[in-house]
Amino acid sequence: MNPEFSRFREQENQDQPLQSDQKQKPSMVEFGSVEELIRHDAEETAPPPELAERLVASILREKTIPWWKRLLGGGDP
Amino acid sequence: MDASPPMARPVEHESKLGELLAVDRSFGAIYQEHARAIYYLALRILGNPAKAEDATHDVFLKVYRKMDQFRGESGIRTWLYRITINHCRNLLQTWHHRHMVNNVDEALWDAAPAPTDTPLRVLETKELGQRIQTTLDALPDEYRLLLLLLADEQLSYQEIGELTGQTPDAVRGKLHRARKNFAALFAKNS
After folding, report:
1. Do the Cβ atoms of A46 and B147 come within 8 Å?
2. pLDDT value of position B24
3. Reduced 3-state DSSP string for chain B
4. Does A59 sit within 8 Å of B24, measured CB to CB?
5. Which end of chain A has fewer CB within 10 Å, C or N?
C-alpha cells in the first residue's frame, strides 16, 4: 500500500562479520508502518508443507465421489 | 496458544507442489501463488497454526470445486480472500471463539501515546509473530482484518472496501485509527 516506505533496516552489526565464538544476538529492526511490520511477518510465515499433500489427497478422493453424492454434500470438508 | 508455525522445509514443499500441479495444473498454479497469503490471513484471524492449516486446506478445496464459477469480476486474490474471510468467520462463530477485547473503549486508544508516524522498533526474534498475534487478537475484528488486508500490496483500497463491506474512503478513514490502536497495543506487549 505504501511503496515509499523504506524496507526494514538492520540497526546493529549489519556489516560486521561475527566471530566464531560470538553468539548471534537478535538485531534491532525498524518498520516504517504497521503494514510493513505485518508484511514482514507474512513473508517469514510459510504454510506447512503437509498442506499441499493433504490437498492432493482430498482432490484425488473428490474425483472418486459421484457427482450426485457431491451435490448432496458428500465429501464436504 | 502458539501462533508461530514451524518454517516449511523447502525441498519437501516443492515436491508436494509438484504433485498438486500434476493433479490439476491451473489449480496448482493458484495454490502456488496464493497459498502463503491465504494461510497467513487464516493464521492471524484464527490465531492457531493447526486451525489455520485446516482452514487453508478447506478454502482451497472449495476453490477447487468452484473454479469454474470464478468469473473474473474481481481479482483472484480478492476472490480467495473473500472465501477465506467467510470460512474463518463461520469457524469463529461455530467455536464461540472470540472472547478477547472486541468491545474496547475507543477513548482508551485515542488517549494512548502512540503516534502512527514513529517507526516500530523491534528486536527480531522468533517471538515476533506471537507478539503480532497477541496485538491483533486484542484489536476489534474490523481493525484486525483491515490491517491484514492493507499489508497485502496486491490489494487496492477498492478491493479492501469490497472485502470489508465499505467504501474505499471509509477504509482510508479507519486506517489511521487502526494503525494507532495497533501501535499502542504493540508497544504495550513489548
Report:
1. no
2. 75
3. CCCCCCCCCHHHHHHHHHHHHHHCHHHHHHHHHHHHHHHHHHHHHHCCHHHHHHHHHHHHHHHHHHHHHCCCCCCHHHHHHHHHHHHHHHHHHHHCCCCCCCCCCHHHHHHCCCCCCCCEEEECCCCHHHHHHHHHHCCCHHHHHHHHHHCCCCCCHHHHHHHHCCCHHHHHHHHHHHHHHHHHHHHHCC
4. yes
5. C
The residues pairing with A30 across neighbouring beta strands, listed in sequence order, are: A9, B121
- Element at A9 (helix H, strand E): strand A9-10
* Rounded Cα distance, A15 and B97, in Å: 46
Interface test with A, best of B20, B27, B84, B163 (most A CBs within 10 A): B20
Better pLDDT: B154 or A17: B154
List, for residues A17-35, the tens digit of each pLDDT value.
Answer: 545 445 556 677 788 999 9
Q: What is the DSSP letter of A14?
A: S
Cα–Cα nearest to B186, from B129, B122, B135: B135
Alpha-carbon distances, residue B43 vs A16, B39, B53, B133, B134 (angstroms): 36, 6, 8, 9, 12
CB distance A29–B122 less than 8 Å? Answer: yes
Say what the ipTM of the complex is: 0.78
Which pLDDT score is estimated for B116? Answer: 53
Task: Give the mean model confidence (pLDDT) for residues A43-71.
Answer: 85
pLDDT at B131 over 60: yes
Encode burial over A17-52: b for 16+ CB neighbours within 10 A, e otherwise: eeeeeeeeeeeebbbbbbbbbbbbbbeebbbbbebb
Chain B residues with CB under 8 Å of A54 CB are 57
- One-letter amino acid identity for B150? L
